[in-house]
Known about the structure:
Elements: H1 2-6, E1 12-16, E2 21-25, H2 31-41, E3 61-66, E4 69-73, E5 84-87, H3 99-114, E6 119-123, H4 129-137, E7 141-146, H5 149-161, E8 168-172, E9 184-190, H6 193-203, E10 207-219, H7 223-229, E11 233-241, E12 244-251
Parallel strand pairs: 4-5, 6-7, 6-9, 7-8, 9-10
Antiparallel strand pairs: 1-2, 3-4, 10-12, 11-12
Helix pairs in contact: 3-4
Bound molecules: S-adenosylmethionine (SAM).
The site of S-adenosylmethionine has 23 residues, from helix 3, helix 4, strand 7 and helix 6.
Amino acid sequence: MEEDVEGLGAISIYLDELWNSLTLVFEPVEIDSILKRIERHLSGVEILEAGLLPDKGPVFSEIEVTPRIRLSLGGARKASTQDQILLKSHLSFGSGHHPTTACCIRLMEKAYALRSLPMVLDMGTGSGVLALCAVKLGAERVVGVDISHVACKEALENVNLNQVAGKILLVCGSVEAIRQKGIFDLLLANLTVGTLRSLGPSLVPLTKTQGLMIVSGFATTQLNEVIKTFTACRLLAKTAEKGWAALLLERFS
Ligand SMILES: C[S@@+](CC[C@H](N)C(=O)[O-])C[C@H]1O[C@@H](n2cnc3c(N)ncnc32)[C@H](O)[C@@H]1O
């Protein structure tokens, strides 16, 4: 077993004897090929979680994610074009450089092309990037939630930087922080496969019946597993980049 694990190319390996689990850390390359390699080398193991490390992009960058969304990291203090979103973030996740963030933004554009979605919940807001994109695409009110204090602080800085404090409310916590059920037109959840598995059933009732959900943070090989978690939803669209996937779902019950 030890030899099998060493052959996988992980940059660090932790063995937790208490939980009988193994944590492997890899360079940020295509996740799908890593998961397939693990399944091939260590047949019979169960992958409990495939996590994401903060997506460190360059200190200054400008990326056009879609024709309507351009993310400017680290530099400007004032937006110079209509499509520009300014980000100061560097500790929390959400520079826009990770494929899961980009996939969510593309699906958000699809969702807003289908109908107007005024009330949005962004569960795991990180830098606030998706909440800011939602406002850009037409949301009237967005609630951004994160369990990390650092993320909430950085999201607040980014909200102020983009002068949308009247539209985005930030809450430090998780699903239990949202008391009112069934009020959101769109729910965004770029989390991890393990978190989606555990939070999934409590996330769905937060949206209106026929409300939309965009979920991401998992590999294309885990797609069916995630779809099974959201049994009260039907699949409207999916997208993938570098082995990471995202789904656009509609609640039907
Ligand atoms: C992958 S990042 C996504 C950040 C940003 N939304 C994006 O798409 O780039 C996931 C975020 O979810 C937060 N998170 C993890 N588990 C959570 C939970 N149970 N409830 C709320 N937030 C959570 C993390 O702190 C992290 O900021």
